[in-house]
Design brief:
It holds the Pfam family PLAC8. By secondary structure, this protein is of the alpha+beta class. The chain has a domain at about 40-145. Helix content is about 40%, strand content about 10%. It has five helices and five strands; from the N terminus they run E-E-E-H-H-H-H-H-E-E.
């Protein structure tokens, strides 16, 4: 929806931007995760959900990353893929780890995101959930929140003005032919 104001047109765009987390170090070096990969017992609720029903934890994580409305489709997708081919579930779920890691400038450890999810999917989901929880990401206040970006205004020049035509029934000076008259005094 474009807005027009005084000859200017604004077309807002929506992008996703990280909203949480501590300020990045000056050097830009990645920092450690708040909790370790195998520190599942640091948060018993997350540990139990991650161990017994990882699809629910995956859905909750995705909802804390992208906002409300993402829980059910993500949860169901993870459940069915994990049920029929648990190896393929890591291909689906490692992207959430990558999003969390990049948003908070975390180290990719102990190995690549896909590898962590392939070998320790439940521990990886728990670690991501703890990180999101500690940094304040929730479904109503997600990690990646759409923000409105207003581009610079586009200046629209005014329409070219034209001279109005003659009134109806009145000849205009341009349309009246010149008449040659003789001097009445000379005859």
């Amino acid at each position: 929806m474009a807005a027009q104001q005084g000859g200017y047109h604004y077309q807002p765009a929506t992008v996703a931007a990280p909203q949480h987390g501590a300020a990045l170090p000056v050097s830009g070096e990645p920092v450690e995760w708040s909790t370790g990969l195998f520190a599942c017992c640091d948060d018993c609720e997350v540990c139990c959900i991650g161990y017994f029903i990882p699809s629910i934890l995956y859905g909750k994580n995705k909802e804390s990353i992208a906002g409300q409305g993402n829980f059910t489709p993500d949860c169901c997708a993870f459940f069915w893929i994990h049920l029929f081919c648990s190896c393929a579930a890591s291909c689906l779920s490692y992207n959430s780890r990558t999003e969390v890691r990049k948003a908070y400038n975390l180290k990719e450890q102990p190995c690549g995101d896909c590898c962590v999810h392939f070998w320790c999917v439940k521990c990886a989901l728990c670690q991501e959930a703890r990180e999101l929880k500690l940094r304040g990401a929730t479904p109503t206040n997600p990690l990646l929140r759409p923000v409105q970006v207003v581009p610079p205004p586009v200046v629209v020049p005014p329409a070219q003005q034209q001279m109005p035509g003659p009134a109806v029934g009145v000849p205009s000076p341009q349309q009246t032919p010149y008449q040659v008259t003789t001097n009445p005094l000379k005859s």
